[in-house]
């Protein structure tokens, strides 16, 4: 049975489902392209039809009928309640504190949810020049909570970031910072006292050993670690309808 | 009042080597035609400004037009890296590229300050990040509450370039859909060029539209398809296959060079 | 999510004595119905904020609701003075009125800062005027150029109140025409009340419109004619004869009192 | 002949005409309600059809078919090229330096074009509390030029303002400040060196003696003072069509 189910969905799909389930109906989300957009639209297509999608390109309340190819996709403007300028979306709406959950990806994350999307290697002589900050510092600082979606590997879950692009637990911003990291193996959440990311949920068939191996720091495991639930048939069919549209 | 002129004339007269030039369009209405004209006219030593440098900036950088890049997110949206940008930063090819990088919020505030003709913008941000040390950002104290905030220097380009859907005969411009920082860059630049899909008899007011009066623009140039292979809302969608293909084209210096020769250098500017 | 409630309930639950309350609408969509409800519920010690206090603020001040007025232009637009405002300032009747006055640009920047959740706004202004000494304005130095500019403290009201044309059942709001600082005051206030002409099935996107999502509003109340005798674009024009008549009504304390008794105190709140 | 013409127009009409004539085709004007709005619309109806009218309520390129009753008049939004928010009109457009000519009225003006629209008497115990600054300080500071329209009398043209609301010759703002004061008797313009307002034009039938008498300071008269021209029949008919609409 497990074998069969395992064959029926990809790691990306599991990640999208795990993130989508965490979004409530009416939750106001700040989403980028890729997995976050997939997760938020899946939530909207399933248990949270009134989940509000805000894209950094200024689309407020977008209800895309297909997944946008980029944040400039006309589908977002076409289906949004309103489109505002980029200075406005960042000042009045994001910095203004109206967003419940912001989504981020990154090239590296550390044990405190700090993220690097700037460079691998030295800044002045980078091994890999990454795209840069984009909206990440503000999303991490100003959303009530930030969810990170990132495949787990020792290269991405690192002891020491090469560059600190966005702060995991920003001070005095009003937001809680990174409260949830959804990976291909499970979910990490910050320890209430230390803020250190702890493995709190394992996806079906993933093991604690796998998760530890895929983490560049000594990953702690929650005493009450939860078993994750595989995507339901309904979730998978909604996901695939989105991806096919 | 904006003059309606051929794009080649607008670029020739208004963009000089060494200028600070911002080609904006937040992943929508990206002024490709104008960028290609900059390449054909071999502008160099430019400081290129753009929140989201994508393929057109990869092309400008790979062709050696830029000395410096001011940006907040440089990638091939939805695809991956910009290989020409990376090559310039990682290996100094075809020339070293100085970087000044911001966050989106910082750069949006900087454009806003530029349009409002104040020398800096204020954001709650940068604190605790490594960006703070790497970019032009300063700390400022609120004279009322004592709070410390980040100040970013206003962006006041020599030339601001945007693409829009429509202009009228008088050179008034209207664009709609995702409007990014188009208004800010036109109002905040010393000179401005707006390329448009077409000239229409009358600009019909529309929801989510931005109107730019002729008297706030230096030159308008007709460039149908001027945002291709990107989007122009109401006119065409993004050629997504091209964006994916660009990844392969741009990986190799020689392939890139051939492609640019054939698809940009040997092309005539859009006839008017 | 905004609750759709009767106006009397919204005012009862959300506006408290002593609050900082901004009723906005830049000479358009002035929230008269909400102001009258404040008067009927005898709110007092309010700090009233508004760029252009006109007849509704004259009424609130004359009825003793206000302790302080924060404003930039207080008159009967196109007619002349506000006699109740003048009586309060010149003779302390019915109570002394503290003033904090700004320029329009200063106050607009202060609302903008409030919406952006930064503690101050920056303008080039106030310099050389006597306002500088009389109001809450401070000087701030640009960390990049050394220029000195004026800083104004952000406006963050306890309650922001605006009138709009339409809401939908979910409490999303759309207004159009001259939009003033409506968006800023709703986003910058701790609590907000939006009165609307009507609830419609669907908010059609329109040119020059402002959309306020339900999740950014505390309460929506239906108040048809809620901006009368002022304008509601697309619904009704200003009753200009009334604005002229107000000059005579408001000149005399007793006449004013009778008028308010009959036209406001004895009126029921708009039924819903 | 002069007698006949004199009877055919009012002082306000003469003021509107004198101001309108100074506006070029394509001039971008920042106008308020009353005489400035009348003057700018008259220019638009006569020699300057492409004169651009901007109202502080956010209407850009308004082409009202009748005179607006207030700056909130729907006619402005209805006929404008665009309507923007009040923060935007003041920051991007006025402070942004896009306005050629701004119009102001006031309760008092001094010899250097400084204006008072705040109080008569002491600020804390005012004899008359006036409406206040409104857009005046910024209009005076940021427009390329500012025109004042004000009836001349010793009460309004004063040696010493009770309150300085807007600066006649602002420093470092980029604008020239008050370059023209249109009164019911003539036109005053600043001396190129001292900045002092000097009588440079007399309306028909007004005299230098009248102008001096109506001025609270010792009014200087330009050596090359010009005789003003009475409103033409075309101007008057355009004016009255506007007022009747």
Topology readout:
The complex is a heterotetramer, with two copies of chain A (245 residues) and two copies of chain B (272 residues).
Chain A: H1 2-7, H2 11-21, E1 28-31, H3 35-45, E2 52-55, E3 59-60, H4 74-79, E4 82-83, H5 86-94, E5 101-104, E6 108-109, E7 115-116, E8 119-121, E9 126-129, H6 136-142, E10 145-149, E11 178-182, E12 186-190, E13 197-202, H7 208-213, E14 220-227, H8 233-244
Parallel strand pairs in A: 1-2, 1-5, 5-10, 10-11, 13-14
Antiparallel strand pairs in A: 3-4, 6-7, 8-9, 11-12, 12-13
Chain B: E1 3-4, H1 7-14, E2 20-23, H2 32-40, E3 46-50, H3 55-62, E4 66-71, H4 83-91, E5 98-101, H5 104-115, E6 120-123, H6 131-134, E7 138-141, E8 148-153, E9 159-167, E10 173-176, H7 182-188, E11 191-199, E12 209-212, E13 219-222, H8 240-251, H9 253-265
Parallel strand pairs in B: 1-13, 2-3, 2-9, 3-4, 4-5, 9-11, 11-13
Antiparallel strand pairs in B: 6-8, 7-8, 9-10, 10-12
Helix pairs in contact in B: 2-3, 3-4, 5-7
Task: Characterise this structure.
- The complex is a heterotetramer, with two copies of chain A (245 residues) and two copies of chain B (272 residues).
- With 245 residues, chain A is α/β, with parallel strands linked by helices.
- Chain A is built from eight helices and 14 strands.
- Helices cover 28% and strands 23% of the residues of chain A.
- In chain A, the strands form four sheets. In chain A, strands 2-1-5-10-11-12-13-14 form an eight-stranded mixed β-sheet, with helices on both faces.
- In chain A, a hairpin with a 6-residue loop joins β12 and β13.
- In chain A, α2 crosses α3.
- The N terminus of chain A is likely disordered.
- Chain B is α/β, with parallel strands linked by helices.
- Chain B has nine helices and 13 strands.
- In chain B, the strands form two sheets. In chain B, strands 1, 2, 3, 4, 5, 9, 10, 11, 12 and 13 form a ten-stranded mixed β-sheet that branches.
- In chain B, α2 packs parallel to α3.
- Chains in contact: A-B, A-C, B-C, B-D, C-D.
- At the C-D interface, α4 and α5 of C face α4, β4, α5, β9 and α6 of D.
